[in-house]
Design brief:
With 257 residues, the chain is mostly helical. The chain is 67% helix and 3% strand. The chain is built from 11 helices and 3 strands, in the order βααββααααααααα. Helix 3 packs across helix 4 (63-70) and helix 10 (213-225) packs antiparallel against helix 11 (238-256).
């Protein structure tokens, strides 16, 4: 197995030697060997860890958060890469939409024409939906319930919360891919069981032993009544929402209730 000096690693990765020295100092990326003369050497294991560090940095994690994630006994490199892929694809989709919005605006400005739909000016840009959803949630479930849920989520930290969001997105994507199957099938219900556990973590009730059949089934009904929850790329997905509602209702009746 080939070993790489710090200069080689810097050249391969585009990370400066000074940065690699800093990573060593804060125990984020230690060389597997250091000679008496002070030369650092890295192997395949260290190079893979550096790749993970750079992916997490790309997703705006702090160095402290990255070290905590990578040093977790349960950390799985393959699962992490799948999560990176999903998060980067979502970012790419948003960037592609932003580029399309810019091109569309430039076109109309050059032609001195009027855009037919002014919503096109803001496609892909961040919307102030967080506040809206929060107010609606408080109306539906009460202020105390929502605030307690938010406190529990804050305990996860940024890394934990981002990981939870990726888990939910992954499960939702898998459910969307089998939306034409029977909601009562073993495959669908297996994914719904995972969906239920993730949702309870968002609610801050995952450590409680009480069963929440009616609340979970009610969430499924909300998916049907409000197009925003199951929308994909800004388009409503009523059939998928109905599939989720039926799947969640069946799970609530047979596994929770």
């Amino acid at each position: 197995m080939k070993n790489y000096g710090v200069k080689d690693v810097a050249k391969l990765s585009g990370v400066s030697i000074r940065t690699l020295h800093h990573y060593d100092k804060i125990d984020l990326l230690k060389p597997f060997n250091r000679t008496e003369a002070g030369y650092r050497y890295y192997g395949a294991k260290e190079l893979l860890r550096l790749q993970q560090i750079l992916f997490y940095k790309e997703l705006d994690f702090s160095l402290k958060e990255i070290r905590q994630l990578l040093d977790e006994p349960s950390f799985d490199r393959l699962t992490s890469l799948e999560h990176h892929k999903l998060a980067l694809k979502a970012r790419k989709k948003r960037i592609d939409q932003l580029l399309s919005t810019i091109d569309n605006t430039i076109y109309h400005l050059k032609k001195n024409t009027i855009m037919k739909n002014y919503k096109d000016l803001y496609k892909g840009l961040a919307k102030e939906m967080g506040t809206t959803y929060r107010k609606e949630a408080m109306t539906k479930w009460g202020k105390n319930t929502i605030e307690q849920s938010e406190k529990d989520l804050l305990k996860l930290g940024k890394a934990g919360f981002e990981s939870l969001k990726v888990e939910l997105a992954t499960i939702t994507e898998e459910l969307f891919s089998i939306r034409n199957e029977s909601p009562e099938s073993k495959k669908v219900q297996g994914l719904i069981a995972q969906h239920y556990q993730i949702i309870r973590q968002f609610w801050g009730t995952s450590v409680q032993k009480d069963k929440q059949a009616s609340i979970y089934a009610g969430l499924g009904q909300l998916y049907v009544s409000d197009d925003r929850y199951m929308a994909r790329d800004g388009e409503a997905q009523p059939e998928f929402a109905t599939f989720m509602q039926k799947s969640m209702q069946y799970f609530s009746n047979t596994q929770i209730g």
